[in-house]
Specification:
12 strands; 6-stranded antiparallel beta sheet; 4-stranded antiparallel beta sheet; disordered N terminus; alpha+beta
């Protein structure tokens, strides 16, 4: 590959307002809910060493070893159980109908309701964390996480609205199709991408994610479940759904267009030496008929990279497919031009393992040894979001998180 301009990425501010807290072993302990018991165990061990007449250095070492051991146990547990958020899989239409009936009945209960979808929210507003937890009456939609049907002839998929894109891709890619547009993070929900807008590198050809919507089942405030589409009695509601954040009702089922795919992509990074050249390069790439994905990353006043990819059936002989995620990280590679081959799955989730480049806010998470200790089960956007939310609960009241 050809080297582009070398410069150090600008470090983001930490969620603790600059306090240098090493992410290991805090990340696994917080995620597994064992931080306070582990701290208590470390303090007890340090007190025992103190009672035995050991030096203060031994107390600190004993406490540190206790925390590290607890972190390793959490890491082993997560490796055995798998990722925190697993794909939902498939279910029958009869099972979906039963869930829809139960949700409609719950919606008819008196008083305000707040949706509970069971997956990690990708919002970044601390006040929403408290609001989610304080909500007394929850409309539980956490069971609507399955794919109902994938039609590879007519190129559409019926999927429940609280299903993640991880689920969507897991059930379609093995059949040789993928969603028209796949947002960058695994646990974004398909319903959220419709009512909250979703776009990614397929958008240069297919537009926003919701533009692939063919029909939807929507739960109204009255408790009625209706099917809406571009024609018919509820056509206006269908057109109004995108970017409404659930104001008109909650989506239960979506029928979405899919497109044919291949097992691999040929991925190219082209350096543009100014912001103007970057915009021009993106425009040129969007006009190329053979490309399946186009996006770009601005790297400052230096310019940026135009990133393009196209489906291929296999990797050329003598060439190995590149794998980003655990190691190497994807975003640091964006200062180097070149052509690479990735599996389609790795391409779609190329940003997820580092939450774009937000792992910079967690000290140590750009180091190989720390990433090795975390493992792929913890190097995921849903884990970072849960960890960040937990940190905000502590730092927010202390006034250390004003810019979050």
């Amino acid at each position: 590959s050809r080297a582009g301009p070398h410069f150090e990425p600008t470090a983001c501010s930490t969620p603790t307002g600059g306090i240098p807290v090493m992410v290991w072993p805090l990340l696994p302990l917080v995620v597994e809910g064992l931080l306070w018991p582990s701290l208590a165990a470390a303090a007890a061990f340090a007190a025992l060493l103190c009672a035995c007449g050991c030096s203060p250095a031994a107390w600190l070492l004993g406490a540190a070893v206790t925390l590290l051991a607890a972190g390793l146990l959490c890491r082993a547990r997560r490796a055995a159980l798998g990722p925190w958020t697993l794909p939902g899989g498939c279910c029958s239409r009869e099972e979906y109908a039963e869930r829809a009936k139960a949700a409609a009945l719950a919606a008819k209960q008196p008083g305000p309701l707040r949706m509970f979808k069971g997956t990690t929210s990708n919002t970044f507003r601390p006040q929403q964390i408290a609001a989610r937890e304080e909500a007394q009456n929850r409309l539980d939609l956490s069971g609507f996480v399955h794919v109902l049907e994938v039609n590879v002839e007519e190129l559409w998929c019926d999927i429940e609205a609280s299903a993640t894109f991880d689920t969507f891709v897991s059930e379609t890619l093995p059949l040789g199709v993928v969603p028209l547009v796949v947002p960058e993070l695994r646990t974004i929900t398909v319903g959220g991408a419709v009512v909250g807008i979703g776009m990614e590198s397929g958008s240069f050809r297919y537009g926003f994610f919701h533009e692939g919507l063919l029909e939807a089942d929507i739960l109204l405030a009255s408790g009625e479940v209706i099917t809406v589409g571009p024609k018919g009695e509820h056509a206006e509601l269908f057109q109004a759904i995108p970017n409404t954040l659930g104001a008109f009702g909650y989506l239960l089922r979506l029928r979405l267009r899919v497109r044919r795919s291949q097992p691999f992509v040929c991925f190219e990074k082209v350096w543009c030496k100014s912001p103007e050249a970057l915009i021009e390069g993106l425009g040129s790439a969007c006009g190329q008929e053979d490309l399946d994905f186009v996006d770009g990353v601005a790297l400052g006043e230096h310019g940026g990279m135009v990133l393009t990819a196209k489906f291929v059936s296999n990797v050329p002989e003598g060439t190995a497919a590149k794998t980003y995620g655990f190691w190497p990280q994807f975003y640091p590679s964006l200062v180097h031009e070149g052509v690479e081959y990735l599996s389609t799955l790795d391409y779609l989730w190329r940003w997820d393992a580092d939450w774009f480049w937000c792992t910079q806010i967690f000290p140590g998470l750009t180091w190989f040894i720390v990433r090795w200790l975390c493992g792929p089960e913890l190097l995921r956007s849903d884990i970072y979001k849960a960890f960040n939310d937990a940190v905000i609960k502590v730092t927010g009241p202390l006034g250390l998180n004003r810019d979050e």
